[in-house]
Specification:
GO terms for molecular function: hydrolase activity. Residues 53-348 form the Beta-lactamase-related domain. Keywords: Hydrolase, Signal. Residues 1-26 form the signal peptide. This is Serine hydrolase domain-containing protein. The protein has 360 residues and is of the alpha+beta class. Mean pLDDT is 92; it is low at 1-28. The strands form three sheets. An eight-stranded antiparallel sheet has the order 2-1-12-11-10-9-8-7, sandwiched between helices. Strands 3-4 form a two-stranded antiparallel ribbon. A two-stranded antiparallel ribbon has the order 5-6. It is built from eleven helices and twelve strands. The protein has two domains: 2-79 and 244-264 and 294-358, DD-peptidase/beta-lactamase superfamily (Beta-lactamase), CATH 3.40.710.10; 85-205, Methane Monooxygenase Hydroxylase, Chain G, domain 1 (Up-down Bundle), CATH 1.20.58. Strand 8 and strand 9 (296-302) form a beta hairpin. Helices cover 32% and strands 17% of the residues. Helix 2 runs antiparallel to helix 11 and helix 3 runs parallel beside helix 7.
Length: 360
Amino acid sequence: MLKNVMRAVGLMFAAMATPVAGQAPAAPATRDPATLEGMDAALRRGEFKRITSVLIARDGRLIHEAYFDEGGREKPRDTRSATKTVTGMLVGIAIEKKLIAGVAAPVVPFFPDRQPLDNPDPRKAQISVEDLLTMSSLLECNDSNSFSRGNEERMYLIEDYVKFALDLPIRGFPPFEEKPADRPYGRAFSYCTAGVVMLGGIVEKAAKQPLADFARASLFEPLAIPKADWQITPTGLAMGGGGLRLRSVDLLGLAQLYLDKGRRNGRQIVPEAWVTASTTPKANARENVDYGYLWWLAPFTAGGQPHRSWGMYGMGGNKILVFPDLRATVVVTSENFRERDAHALTDRLITEHILPALGR
């Protein structure tokens, strides 16, 4: 019975999907379907702990959809910081609509109502939209450092998250740390949720409408995403830095949109140039991992074969991935929020099960 339901769901997704224009004839969906059956069995045994769903599409067609909690297909998934990538999409759409001048646009002028700023410094006036998209502004903001003034846990204690970000001091570079000019791509990466919240505020200011309304009209409705549950900050701004709840199949649709160069059903939803720019390295996040415009750019290796990926990552091991060379998209949702190595757990699922099943 369950297999029949899954087959029907797969056919429905295939009917809705739009093949990539000019692509080569589709390869077999999987090299070894038994690998995915083994993965599902391992997940049901709890070997990967609190993984809640795994979806895989190839050539725009859903080939695997499985859920491991009571929520099933209709449950909105909290993929935490994967929201950031959605905010990046909205920035690209706003630039295309000429609501924002471009990635070089300075940030501070969008917020005359938040001034004067604490920790005044002329360099704040030079902080651009691109600096926030690449997690490389000069604001002293580092979510990985509990001592950082801009750590997101400190932000949640303040009513106005945007003002919190604007008031941060300029970061320093001690002698043992490379300055931006000495780093790959000329940028110093520092993971900063507050900066992405500010990007959401910029889109809202530029569009002259709530961020959630802009997202619904320009992104979610064109993708036939029926519902998006945003977290709302104390000042009423939709939280662009995390906590947006979407169904797993909707997350897969966002990944497929980027694999399809921003198009769906003949309509350009995200500009193709923005897709290319977003998935081109702009900063080095850590060894062997780069960062674009709020996309993680990292290789996954299976069977000695590396596969480049574009990823939306969220706390707890949540990952929404595009594998361009495999013409595949993958969603893994998880509630491993208390697991120290949650992302490593998801990565093992991908390299030991998903990629071997896809092959070449």
